[in-house]
Design brief:
Layout: H1 6-19, H2 25-28, H3 52-65, E1 68-77, E2 81-88, E3 92-100, E4 105-110, E5 113-118, E6 121-124, H4 141-145, E7 148-158, E8 161-171, E9 178-186, E10 192-199, E11 204-212
Antiparallel strand pairs: 1-2, 1-11, 2-3, 3-4, 4-5, 5-6, 7-8, 8-9, 9-10, 10-11
């Protein structure tokens, strides 16, 4: 069985969260977010650039309220990959590697249980002693401490939809890798639509994440052989 590059798994687990720092005490202690619906709840809350930091934090808080989302990720550098990450509250993740490192693999996490698919065959992995780090674990108060230089970059569009764009600097919660980032927030929903990240060190040069917060996601245990 092919071994998975641990660095790639860590990146998939933290890359979304570390780009959207916010105060998420309720999330760290469990639960699936405060709301029970997807992006349909609430509208945009951007300040129009008068307080860029508040806008980024508000987008973060809306993001963690989601009961589901899909993130399409592309990264280039020493380690390159293309993947799709699906999330369903409170602790279900489905990761499909589409190209690059691990291009023929697929994984599902449900709490402490995990499954791997290589060559069309699902296998259950040994149960972890604790839940894996997730996209949501990185949304802690610590993330705010390294968030700097938040700027409003202006109005833009993502896939033809109106967005407000912001740039900032931060450091990844795993590995302490500095990075600069640009985020596009929907004018209609106040939710993140896209993120572009550039790393100053490490195996990756840059990463692009496109979010789908509207399509419903259901993740169930696969049939193993």
């Amino acid at each position: 069985m092919r071994k998975i590059n641990p660095a790639i798994l860590v990146l998939l687990c933290v890359v979304l969260g570390c780009k959207l720092p916010a105060s998420l005490k309720d999330l760290v202690s469990g639960g699936g977010g405060r709301g029970s619906s997807s992006s349909s709840s609430g509208g945009g809350t951007a300040t129009g650039g008068s307080d860029p930091r508040a806008d980024v934090v508000a987008a973060s808080e809306k993001f963690i309220d989601l009961r589901y989302f899909t993130a399409n990720m592309e990264a280039t550098g020493q380690s390159e990959f293309k993947s799709r990450v699906e999330y369903a509250a409170p602790d279900r993740f489905h990761v499909k590697y589409l190209a690059g490192t691990g291009g023929d693999m697929e994984m599902i996490w449900i709490g402490r249980e995990s499954y791997m698919n290589i060559g069309g065959k699902w296998s259950k992995m040994p149960e972890a002693s604790s839940s894996i780090p997730t996209l949501r674990d990185s949304f802690t108060e610590e993330g705010l401490k390294t968030l700097t230089d938040v700027k409003f970059e202006g109005e833009d569009t993502v896939d033809g939809k109106p967005a407000l764009s912001y740039s900032y600097r931060n450091v990844t919660p795993v590995g302490d890798h500095p990075f600069t980032s640009k985020i596009w927030v929907s004018e209609d929903t106040g939710l993140p639509m896209k993120i572009f990240v550039e790393y100053s060190n490490g195996t990756l040069k840059n990463m692009t994440v496109n979010y789908d917060t509207e399509s419903k996601v259901t993740i169930e245990p696969p049939v193993t052989k």
